[in-house]
Amino acid sequence: MPFDHAPIAAEAKDHINSCQDKVALDAARVKYLGRKGIIAELFSKLSALPQEERKVFGASLNVLKQAIEESLRQKEEALSASRDPLTSHGALDLDITLPGKKPMLGRQHPLTQVETEICDIFGRLGFKAFEGPEVETEYNNFEALNIPLEHPSRDAFDTFYIKEFSGSRVDELTSLGPKNKTLGTSELANSRTCKLLLRSHTSPAQIRALKACHPPMAVVVPGRVYRPDAVDASHSFMFHQVEGIAVSEKIRFSDLKGVLMAFATEMFSEKTKLRFRPSFFPFTEPSAEVDIACFLCAGYGCPVCKKSGWLEIGGCGMVHPYVLKSGGCDPKVWRGFAFGMGVERIAMLKFGIKDIRMFFENDIRFLEQF
Length: 370
Description:
- By secondary structure, the chain is an alpha+beta fold.
- 38% of the residues lie in helices and 20% in strands.
- The protein is elongated.
- The chain is built from 14 helices and 10 strands.
- The strands form 2 sheets. Strands 1-5-6-10-9-8-7 form a 7-stranded mixed β-sheet, with helices on both faces.
- The chain has 2 domains: 6-92; 110-132 and 202-367, Bira Bifunctional Protein, Domain 2 (BirA Bifunctional Protein, domain 2, 2-Layer Sandwich).
């Protein structure tokens, strides 16, 4: 008489499917396939059967055993797929009692931090951010800023010249899109060719700002500039500057001093002292170098300030009438002041860094300190 294993197979399958964890599944495995389990008990009855029935009964038991093993395998796979990695010690060999590791957080580069802080300070003083292209025309970089043809800074040893392009291509190559699009000048429109260069300072943005933002206005221009300098502890062929210009009908040098004093006290400390030294820049008149009292030695003199008690942070002055005219403003009506500073210089003073090259080496041990 053939053995009907279907009821036992159905019961085993239901039992196995109801298991919610590995412990319950192991108990089901022992119940059906263990040494004293149901299958083992059925196999023990084979010896009592006649020879003819023994073959049929044994074959049926093997089919039942295989069905139970398959149900166990499928359930084990299902439990493994849905298992929580925090509780599956064996699967991932994870010891949840060990202390965790904090994820590494990204942060801004120290130069970006300082540049952003500078722009934020001037933003609170009423200046709006403005951008200029890094690829500039020779006219905007020099002539419009009252820098004469024979000036040494226009030499190829001091400026990265790129290529001559036809006048119709200049606006396309030196524009920033609709917002800060280059405004053509009569000098460019009438010239057949125009030299392009990597800007050597952010001052060309003064010309663009005067044309794009009609006075009265106050803008600050951050950006990269390029000069073919030999790289050393204080020089790099690429560095960052922040340029500022404010124009109105009654602006004065005292306004410039007040703005820079407010900047210095907020950037460094409330006790910061400022000094203006007479200087010369072609695009400002009068011009001055701006120094702050050395905060390391309180003005008494140290190696950082070269025993002078002062640290230079930038240059400034009243906008030259020629520059106002180049920007489309009547110098008889409008007056303005301008200033510029190196971001690396400010960052080195602020963080006590002695080598500018450290900013560009991408050493994580250095960068993670900021």
